[in-house]
Design brief:
The protein has a single domain (2-169), classed as Vaccinia Virus protein VP39 (Rossmann fold, 3-Layer(aba) Sandwich). It contains 7 helices and 7 strands. The protein has helices spanning 2-7, 28-35, 46-56, 72-75, 96-104, 127-132, 166-169; strands spanning 16-20, 38-43, 65-69, 85-90, 107-116, 135-141, 147-152. The two termini are 26 Å apart. The model has no long low-confidence stretch (mean pLDDT 95).
């Protein structure tokens, strides 16, 4: 569903993808297999990234897979991470405000954040809160799956993401 959401607005594959809170590798490993582009699988839990390391180093694994262990709030500010990705994905990462805040610094201006959503429900992505982060809502797809597609319209303020744990404890929206 993530590559279909990307391809609904782009003719070409992204050049670099980051899967936020990759866990067991979904959707990151599937996107790596589908596009074969640089794909970073990020998770804060070492036991999860040990599994992901094994998966990307399998003999028949597509080239381009990387695994990062650490908190998104910290890693987003590292050289080679900041504004380095065309696409950031998130599936079951955190509530909307924390997901947006943790993802936005990784995205290039013009890049997309695609987040899985319940198939029915209300808009959990308020325009004013997204604008604070330089994001806007491009699409909300509910059938046959639920995702939102956010686009980074402007550079991210140096304030974001805030220090570890704050995006979830004190959400922007």
């Amino acid at each position: 569903m993530f590559w279909e959401a990307w391809e609904s607005g782009h003719r070409d594959a992204p050049t670099a993808v980051l899967d936020l809170g990759s866990g067991g590798g979904v959707p990151g490993l599937a996107l790596l297999a589908h596009w074969g582009v640089r794909t970073v699988l990020l998770d804060a839990m070492r036991r999860r990234t040990v599994f992901l390391e094994r998966a990307v180093h399998e003999p028949d694994a597509p080239a381009g897979g990387e695994v990062w262990t650490g908190r998104a709030e910290v890693l987003a500010r590292q050289p080679g991470a900041e504004e380095s990705f065309d696409l950031v994905t998130a599936r079951s990462f955190a509530p909307p405000a924390a997901t947006a805040e943790c993802a936005v610094r990784f995205l290039r201006v013009g890049g997309s954040l695609i987040v899985s959503e319940p198939p029915e429900g209300t808009n959990r992505w308020p325009e004013a809160g997204l604008a604070e982060l330089g994001l806007s809502l491009r699409a909300s797809l509910r059938e046959p799956y639920g995702v939102v597609i956010l686009v980074k319209e402007a550079a991210t303020s140096a304030r974001y993401p805030r220090r570890v744990g704050v995006p979830q404890k004190r959400p922007l929206f």
